[in-house]
Amino acid sequence: MGITVQNITGSTAMVIWPKMASCADTFYSVMYHPNWNSSSSYSRKSFQKEERVPTTRSSFVVENLTPLTTYIVCVTCQSANPSSDQCRVFNTLERDPASASNTKKELALGIWLTSSVLLLIIAAILLYGCLHILCRRRRERLQGRNGTSEQDHGKMWTKSTAQDSEELSRQSQPMQDTEEKHPGGIQLATIIENPLACKEPVMLTSKSHKGVPMTGQCSAI
């Protein structure tokens, strides 16, 4: 078939074959396998990978190869076991500097993304903890203010009650003195002088003073 392998690198290789007019299938089968040796068989099952390429094409780039490895690649125009004249053996080169650089970049990018995610998670946890502590302190402060207000209200109520009691005691003191001066319990009348209205004598009766006449005065209780 005149199969050739070109542009071999540490991870890729281009396989080229001539078009075959006798190929009745609609695709070519490109099979390849690493670590090939002369004792290996050409059985279809012994190949690691197989790619199907449309018959309109006559080349295919094999990718993801291992550097410094011996490969065999075969091309057939039908789903059958290949023969030796349909295969070629080639060796991959060392790892490409560009590929190694890309690998390092991908590794660094992965590490950076992982670190960023971890930092965001830690920052979110710290922010939640700070907000929780602030809310708790604010709630305790409000509770303390409410307790102080209740204590002040209680003190004011107690003080007002004491003042009312003291005022009541002051008001009741003259009545007690009056009762002490007049054991009989008789309330003294306020006498208002009115010579025109009061001409008849007014008699005041009491336990201590009975039948004492008083003239020219009116009693007003």
UniProtKB/TrEMBL annotation:
Keywords associated with the record: Membrane, Transmembrane, Transmembrane helix
Transmembrane feature ranges: 109-135
Pfam families given in the database record: fn3 (PF00041)
SUPFAM superfamilies: Fibronectin type III
Keyword Ribonucleoprotein recorded: no
Highest taxon listed in the record's lineage: Eukaryota
Protein name: FNDC9 protein
Domain Fibronectin type-III span(s) in chain numbering: 1-95
Record-linked InterPro entries: FN3_dom, FN3_sf, Ig-like_fold
UniProt source species: Alca torda (Razorbill)
Keyword Transmembrane helix appears in the UniProt entry: yes
Segments for region (Disordered): 143-183
